[in-house]
Amino acid sequence: MFNGLVLGALLALISSGLTIIYGTLGVLNLAHGAMFMIGGYAGYLTFTATGSFPLAILGGALFVMVLGVVMERVIIRHFYGRPHEDQILVTFGLSIVFVEAIRFSFGSLSYSVPPPPWATGVTSLGFMLYPTYRLVVVGIVAVALLALYLVLYRTRLGMIVRAGIEDSVMVDSLGINVFRVFMVVFGIGAMAAGFAGIVNAPVVSLTPDMGEMILVQTFVVVVIGGVGSFPGAILGGLIAGQILSITSMINPGYAYVMLFAAMTLVLLIRPRGLMGLRSRD
Amino acid sequence: MVANRRTFLGQSLAMGAGIGGISAGGWGALGLLSPAWAKDEPPLGTWPAGSQGSSVFIGITVPRTGTYAVQGEDELKGYQLAVEHINAGHPLIKAISPKTTKGVLGKEVKVGVADDGAKPNQAVQNISRFISENKAVLMTGGTSSAVAVALNKLAQREKVLCVVGISGSNDTTGKDCVRYSVRECFYGQTAAAGIGPVLLKAFGKGKKAAYLTPDYTYGHTVQKSMSDFLNKEGGWTTVTNQVSPLGAPDYSSFLLNIANSGAEIFLNINWGHDAVLSIQQAKQFGVLDKQKLVVPYQVPFLAREVGGNLLEGVYAATDFWWTLEDKYPLAKQFVAEFEKKYGYKPEWGANACYMQFAMWANAVETAGTFYPPAVIKVYESGAKIQSTVGEVHFRPEDHQLVRPVVIVRGKKASEMKGKEDYWEVLEVLPGEPLMQKPDAFGCKLGDYS
Hints:
The complex is a heterodimer. Chain A is mainly α. Chain A is built from eleven helices and two strands. Chain A has one domain. In chain A, a hairpin with a 4-residue loop joins strand 1 and strand 2. Chain A is globular, with a radius of gyration of 18 Å. Chain B has two domains: 261 residues, Rossmann fold (3-Layer(aba) Sandwich); 160 residues, Response regulator (Rossmann fold). In chain B, the strands form three sheets. In chain B, strands 7-6-8-9-10-14-15 form a seven-stranded mixed β-sheet, with helices on both faces. A five-stranded parallel β-sheet of chain B has the order 2-1-3-4-5, sandwiched between helices. In chain B, a hairpin with a 2-residue loop joins strand 11 and strand 12. Chain B is globular. Chains A and B meet through helix 1, strand 2, helix 9 and helix 10 of A and helix 3, helix 9 and helix 10 of B.
C-alpha cells in the first residue's frame, strides 16, 4: 500500500508536468520521460560536486527547467502550428537524442545518489518496517505538488495557463503574450519531471533507460485523470500507483495488464478521463 | 553491403581455383576427413556462400540497452578484441588456436553488431538479417539465457554455427541444447554444485533461505539448482521464493516479503541492473542488515555499480575474475591486452566472449574448412584447448565446455589493493566433478545437416 503511495506520488508529479504542457500548449511531449531521466543525472552531478542532497534536488530541477525552456524556444515553438503527428515525431526524436547523449557521456553503468543521512535506514510503522527515505519522498512530492497548485491557482501566470487550457484562442486575442507564457509553462512542466527524477534517484539507480518506462505509465495516468487536468493527474497518479503495486504483490506479470484494463474502463465510462474537461477545440 | 557482397562473389569466382587448392591441402593435412567429403556436400546453411570471399562475417547480437546493457557492452568488447587479435594473428590467439596465422583460414573476419535489449525475438531478427544479408558463418549472442536459447533454435534451423555469449541457464546446453551451438560458461547447476559446499561451510546447516528470482529460464533453473542442493545436502529450508519480472523498476513488494520472511540467508539470483537495483533496495529495506546476501552466479560490474561496500563478505560463483592472472599466464596476457585497449579490467562476460571466438577460430583451423559439420566434429572431439582458465575441453554429448568454477568473496574496502580489486578468489574448482551427467537435463543435440 505504501509502495503504491510512493510510486503514485511520483507519477502524479511527473504527470502534472506532462498534462499542463499538453493542456496549455497542445503539445504531447514524448521527451517527458527523458526529462525525468536527465533530472536524475543532473542531480547526480550536482551531488558529486557539492555532496549536498538539497542542492542536488535544486540542481536537477533547475537544469531540466532551463533545458525545457531552451527546447521550447529552439524547437518546439516551430511546431505549434503543425499537426500532432509532427509534434509527436519531434519530441520522440528529442527523447532518443537525450537518452543516447546520456548513454554516450555516462555509459550504461548505473549511478546512485545516496539519500540524505537523516533519511537513511528504516522506520517502524508499527505494523511493518519501511525505508525512511521513501516516506520522505511522499512528503517532498506533496510539497512540490502544493507549490505547483499555488502557482497554477493563485498567480496571474496560473490564471493565464488555466485560461489557456480552457480556450487558448481567446487568451491569445486578449493581447497576452502567449509565447512567453508557453515558454514558462514548458519550463515548469519539464521541471516537474526533472524534480521527480532527482527525488526518485536514491530509490532506484540512474540508467539512461529509466525515463522510457515511466513515460508509458505517465501517459496512462494522464488519460485516467483526464487530459489537461491538474487535479486529474494527481488522482490518476495515486490510482495508478496503487494498481501497479497491489498487482505486483499478487502477480507482477499482470501489473501493466491491470493498469491498461483500468485505463480502458475509465475511457469506456468517462471518455475524457475522471476529471477531464470538455475536449479541446 | 550489397556492393561488398558482389565484390566478394566476383573475387571468389576469380580465385576459385586457388581456394580449391588450399582447402584440399588443409583436408590432406588433417588426415581425418576425406577432402571429397566437404567438397561434394550440397550447400548447408551459409556454406559455402559465406566463406567464398576474402572475408567471413560474424553476426553479433548483444543488449546495448535495457537491464543487461552494461554486461552486453563488456561482452562486445571481448568479441571485438578477439576479432582484432584473430585478424592480426596475435600471440594470445595463437596460444589458444595454434594453427592460426592471420584471420581464419587466411580470411579476414568481419562483424556486424546489433542491439537486442536482451529480448529473444529482437535477437533472432538481428541474426536472421546477418544470415540473409551478410551470409554470416557464425552467430553469437546471449547475456540473457532466453536469447541464448532462441539463438540455439535459430542456429539449428538455419544450420549456422552459434557460440553462446553469457548464459547460465541449465536449458542452454540442457533441454534446449542443439548440435549447432556451444557454450563456454557453466551450467547454473554447476555453479550451485561449486558454491553450495562453500555456503554450507560458511553458514552451517539447517538455515532458512529466501530467494529473489528473475522470471525466465535462467532464474528458474539456477534457483532450482541452488535450493535443491542446499536443501538436500545442508538441510536448508526455502522460506520464500519471490519471482520478479525481468527489468522490474522496483523491488519493494518482493523485498517486503523477504524482509518479513524470517530468512537468515538471502540468495539473489537476479542479474544485470536488476541485481544492482534489488541489492541497493534490499539495503534500503533493511534486508541486508538481518540476512546474509549470496549471489550464486556473479554479475559483471556488480560490485562497482552497487557501491557502498554492500558486497563485502558476499559469496559468488563466477566464470572469471581478473586476479586469476596470477594463476594463469593466458589470463595475465588477456587482462593486460584488454586493459590496454579499453582502460579497465575485463569482467567475465568479456572473457567468455573472447574465448568463444578464439575457440571457434581454433575449431575452424583444425577442421581446415568452414563446413559446419566438420567444425562441429572438432568441438566434439573433446580435444584439450588452452584457455585463460587453464586447460579446457568441450563435452561432446551436450556441447558444454568443461572448465573450472571460480568461487569469490567480496573484499572489505580496507583489503582492496586497487579500485577494481573487488573480489577475493577463494577457490578454483575443477569443473568436471561438479557437472551433472550430460543427459540430466534432457539434452538431445539434433542433426548435423
